[in-house]
Amino acid sequence: MAKNDVIMHVGTFVPEGSTFAKDSEVEVHVDEAKRRLYARIHSAGHLLDIAMRMAGRPELKPSKGFH
After folding, report:
1. How far is CA 66 from CA 6, 9, 51, in A?
2. Over the chain, what HEC string results?
3. What is the per-residue pLDDT across 3-58, written as a single tens digit (0 to 9) for each?
4. pTM to 2 decimal places
5. 36-66 as b/e, with b when 16 or more CB fall inside 10 Å?
6. Which of 43, 67, 50 is nearest to 58 (CA)?
7. What is the dihedral of CA 40, 50, 4, 33, to 10 degrees?
């Protein structure tokens, strides 16, 4: 998620409830299966955008971040 040119990462802290100080080094893990699924869904959304345009429905414009 980006806000004011800053990338924000959303997740959980382990152990739950823990915190860290500014400029601390942290370790991040990505759920590969979930990441691949979200990438496929995102790509499919672009295909739907093109299909709507080619089906003669140019008024159905995608909005930012949504397909």
Report:
1. 20, 19, 15
2. CEECCEECCCCCCCCCCCCCCCCCCCCCCCCHHHHHHHHHHHHHHHHHHHHHHHCCCCCCCCCCCCC
3. 788 877 788 888 888 888 989 998 888 899 999 999 999 899 889 888 988 999 98
4. 0.58
5. eeeeeeeeeeeeeeeebeeeeeeeeeeeeee
6. 50
7. 0
- Measured between alpha carbons, how far is 63 from 46 in angstroms, rounded to an integer? 11
Tokens of 56: 């003669």
Listed residue (51, 39, 45, 47) closest to 64, CA to CA: 45
Contact 1, 7 (CB under 8 A): yes
- Which residue is it, tokens 């955008």? 49
CB count in 10 Å sphere of residue 24: 7
